Model the fold of this input.
Amino acid sequence: MEAVKKHFFSDMGVMLGRSMRHITRSMDTIITVTIMPIAFMLLFVYVFGGAIKTGTDNYVNYLLPGILLIAIATGISYTAYRLFMDMQGGIFERFHSMPIAPSAALWGHVLTSLVSNTISVAIIILVALIMGFRSSAGVLSWLAVAGILALFTLALTWIAAIAGLSAKSVDGASAFSYPLIFLPFISSAFVPTESMPGPVRAFAENQPVTSIVDAIRALLSGQPVENDIRVALAWCLGILIVAYLFAIRVYKRKAA
Done:
């Protein structure tokens, strides 16, 4: 068993290196992923921010958690695209003919998504600091934020894996991300849910993004997270487990 695990992790490391080389050779991917969220942040802070009532003095502090989730939702579309291209290019078939762990190539894409999205999130936080973002959070709170964002990234990445493995075209592989990018707009990411009409408010308060945004916002502001962090973790872990099981099932069917 120990030899099998060692074999799997060494293979996964090779596949991670392969996928990361694709990223480092085309840094425009990360730049493209960060441009739209940063543009949204600039637009809402400097154009709409004065007209939006959130009960906070610094709107960028209120806005940042939602922007980070939009960046992640944008970034995982590239995972679906790269998986689709590997499927079309027959790369997985070649890997299966080699003495490597069967799911190592898939995990390589997933971990690459985690690394590349971490870079994008870091860039956006730096821009937010320039725009006036300030946090009273301690080290443990920042680690909790990092953990939530990592779980959210992994959950969406496994959804991306399903799309990339199942799509019939390049457009189909990345189109699934559009609803995910739009979801933060119908949440507490930009405005308090109390300002929304009844049906919209009901949806916003009972979808995963609102609890995740509220938990991150409370952690960054040094406020008690109360029930939000439990709900956020439940959503992230639930989506992660279900998406992982479906992705592995699709992967095994395609590889058969």
Summary: The longest helix spans residues 59-89. The chain has one domain: 10-255.
